[in-house]
């Protein structure tokens, strides 16, 4: 199990390295440096754009969550007490931390390569990383929780991946093409990337964090209820 997990992590790392190189190499000659910085970190073709997080990363992320060690067999007898659900959530959270850390590590590497260390101090790059780290963790954790809840209902990895991906992409295109003013969690993610990269408006960023935390709590409760309902129906049929 651990070897498969390490292999999945390595594959994820290589996928992101290649994607970042392919999507940012065209920006290397942009001047001035600040325009290059904005293009690398928030341009729609950047791997840090909302388009990338929705269209490129959703499916690999969900597959990565699936590969996280869960020790499910050891928790079967504690299902009625919700131990398996708590373990699934905890392992999903570990996967989120690893996924986001890899993403931001590669982001930092390409920024350093294309911009140089001096520019990092001018744009408060460490603060940008910390702010974006929290926003991405909350966003991807909400996706993981939705996946766990849907999988509890459908009992199929492929259907659960596809259903979550469908919801995310549908929301993204609705926001982009139909109603840009409608609030969605995806719009929050887009805003936080723009805020931390461009304006640094901490009040707006904290407001986004609070909304993201609220969504995480709602999905935790929803997933717990789905899990408990499944247990009830399973035992009711015995």
Describe this structure in words.
With 238 residues, this protein is mostly helical. It has one domain (2-233). The protein is built from ten helices and no strands. It has helices at 2-24, 33-42, 50-56, 58-67, 83-115, 117-122, 125-154, 157-178, 185-199, 202-236. It is globular, with a radius of gyration of 19 Å. The protein starts with a helix and ends with a helix. Mean pLDDT is 80; it is low at 71-78.
Itemize the secondary structure elements and their pairings.
Layout: H1 2-24, H2 33-42, H3 50-56, H4 58-67, H5 83-115, H6 117-122, H7 125-154, H8 157-178, H9 185-199, H10 202-236
Helix pairs in contact: 1-5, 2-5, 4-5, 4-7, 4-8, 5-7, 7-8, 7-9, 7-10, 9-10
General form: globular
Number of domains: 1
Uncertain parts: 71-78
Summarize model confidence as the mean pLDDT: 80
Report Rg: 19 Å
């Amino acid at each position: 199990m651990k070897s498969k997990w390490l292999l999945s992590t390595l594959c994820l790392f290589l996928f992101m390295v290649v994607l970042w190189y392919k999507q940012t190499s065209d920006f290397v000659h942009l001047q001035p440096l600040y325009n290059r910085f904005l293009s690398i970190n928030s341009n729609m073709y950047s791997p840090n754009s909302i388009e990338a997080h929705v269209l490129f990363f959703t499916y690999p992320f969900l597959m990565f969550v699936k590969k996280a060690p869960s020790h499910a067999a050891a928790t079967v007898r504690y299902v009625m007490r919700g131990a398996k659900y708590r373990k699934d959530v905890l392992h999903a959270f570990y996967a989120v931390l690893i996924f986001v850390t890899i993403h931001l590590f590669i982001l930092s590497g390409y920024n350093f390569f294309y911009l140089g260390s001096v520019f990092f101090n001018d744009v408060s790059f460490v603060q940008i990383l910390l702010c974006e780290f929290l926003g991405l963790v909350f966003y991807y954790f909400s996706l993981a929780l939705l996946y766990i809840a849907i999988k509890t209902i459908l009992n199929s990895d492929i259907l659960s991946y596809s259903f979550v991906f469908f919801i995310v992409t549908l929301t993204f295109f609705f926001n982009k093409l139909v109603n840009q003013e409608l609030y969605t969690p995806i719009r929050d993610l887009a805003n936080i990337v723009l805020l931390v990269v461009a304006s640094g408006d901490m009040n707006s960023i904290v407001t986004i964090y609070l909304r993201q935390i609220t969504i995480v709590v709602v999905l935790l409760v929803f997933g717990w209820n789905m899990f408990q309902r499944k247990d009830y129906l399973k035992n009711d049929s015995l």
